[in-house]
Design goal:
With about 450 residues, the protein is of the alpha+beta class. Helix content is about 50%, strand content about 20%.
Length: about 450
């Protein structure tokens, strides 16, 4: 079963919106990741440059005392290196000698791998004092005053950096979400505006099909003008073909009726076996001609603006009440005033007249007639007419046989057995459906599905 959302995304509007939104979301997501990566790279590169500059500064003020001990010729100006666990640290190490380190390390000592030389700048993430994660820059230096290798290390806590990156990412996500919302609204407006001519074209086609207009009219965009012109040409051609077909059928039927009338007149009063056979077959041919004439008329399409049925149904109900006055029959009618039948007046009267007359014959006291538009999806607007009675009803396994021509379940009730068969023929010629079921009143219910305006 296809849901409403499924039908939407299978439509042209849904497909355009879905594809555009998916591409927009993908582009924004990729752009967001690139921006986040660029910001993180920029922040880390800025920190790395500061760490490298700090190493250069430390090398510049380093000297070897007469005792052979490394020291600074002047103190570092950055006071963060003097505060314990401040987040900024330095340490100078050499093999077999205690390290020279900043006061900020307090009782913590970095453990560099002195056996792996690093004469070029090396960057890494290491664990520092108080559980801090440090961004560490290190490089091996040989001072001019001593033929010894010293490992210079400068590190900073990355907590502030990570927090700054996280804040930027959240801000970026919010901005991208706002952009996505704006883009989505813009896409909805763009698709709605761009497809509006197609919706207008669909409404114009509906008006043509329903008989409200003969052709598609209006000022169409340049890319839709050829389509509108081709549809109008197709409508004109279809009308010509239908008119030609109906004319040919009518001419043929009238051409046949005259000889048939002559034949019937010739055998009138002839009670011989041959005369009766000729009369029977001639009447059968005439019935077929009438049937196909009706079919040709119905195939011509709708009835223009449609046939209002409320007044006709109410008149039919009153007529059936008068015909069955002896048993006090009551016909209850429920029909919206705006409901219209998309067909010929004669066909509707013959169709409903047969159904309601049949219900009146079998009902004990009540016939209920209900007409309402059908809300389910159909190729065209439809309406449902239910005719119910409180009669004896019909067993389920025998209901379908009532649509057979001449079939009668009770010979004591007057009739020809053609009413329901004729009704189904008319309904099917209009593309509808006729069915039978048990009525809520206890008798038989006839359900007709007919085209509506």
């Amino acid at each position: 079963m296809i849901t409403a959302s499924g039908r939407f995304f299978r439509s042209l509007t849904g497909r355009l919106l879905l594809s555009a939104l998916l591409w927009s979301a993908a582009a924004l997501a990729i752009g967001g990741m690139l921006l986040s990566f660029a910001f993180r790279s920029y922040v880390l590169r800025d920190i790395d440059q500061k760490l490298e500059m700090q190493i250069d500064t430390m090398v510049g003020i380093s000297e070897i005392s007469p005792e052979g001990v490394l020291r600074f010729s002047q103190p570092l100006l950055d006071q963060r290196f003097a505060a314990p666990y401040s987040g900024w640290y330095w340490q100078i190490s050499e093999i077999d000698n205690p390290p020279f380190r900043s006061r900020s390390l307090w009782d913590f000592e970095l453990t560099p791998d002195l056996n792996a030389r690093a004469f070029s700048l090396r960057l890494s993430e290491v664990e520092g004092p108080d559980g801090q994660m440090l961004r560490m820059a290190e490089r091996d230096i040989i001072l001019p005053e001593a033929d010894r290798i010293f490992r210079y290390q400068v590190g900073t806590d990355t907590a502030e950096v990570r927090e700054a990156i996280a804040q930027f990412n959240w801000l970026l996500m919010g901005a991208l979400a706002l952009i996505m919302l704006t883009v989505s609204l813009a896409l909805v407006i763009q698709v709605a505006y761009g497809l509006r001519p197609l919706r207008n074209l669909r409404r114009a086609l509906t008006e043509v099909r329903s008989g409200h207009k003969a052709r598609i009219e209006g000022d169409w965009p340049e890319d839709l003008k050829p389509l509108a012109q081709e549809i109008n040409a197709l409508v004109d051609q279809n009308e010509k073909l239908v008119d030609r077909a109906r004319t040919h059928v009518g001419n043929l039927a009238h051409a046949l009726k005259t000889p048939l009338s002559v034949i019937l007149n010739e055998v009138e009063g002839d009670n011989s076996k041959k005369g009766q056979a000729i009369t029977l077959q001639t009447k059968s041919i005439r019935d077929h001609i009438d049937h196909h004439l009706k079919r040709a008329r119905i195939a011509g399409g709708g009835s223009g603006p449609g046939l209002p049925i409320q007044e006709r149904v109410e008149k039919l109900g009153r007529a059936i009440e008068r015909l069955n006055r002896d048993k006090g029959l009551s016909v209850e009618v429920t029909c919206p005033s705006e409901l219209k039948f998309d067909g010929e007046k004669e066909d509707f009267d013959e169709l409903l007249g047969n159904i309601v007359d049949n219900a009146g014959k079998w009902a004990h006291s009540i016939v209920r007639l209900t007409a309402a538009p059908v809300t389910s999806q159909h190729r065209r607007p439809m309406m449902e007419i239910r005719v119910e009675d409180d009669g004896p009803g019909v067993p389920a396994d025998e209901r379908e046989t009532l649509f057979e021509r001449g079939k009668r379940l009770d010979e004591h009730v007057p009739g020809t057995g053609l009413g329901l068969a004729i009704a189904r023929d008319i309904v099917e010629l209009y593309g509808g459906q006729a069915s039978l079921e048990e009525a809520s009143l206890g008798g038989l219910a006839v359900i007709l599905l007919l085209p509506a305006k």
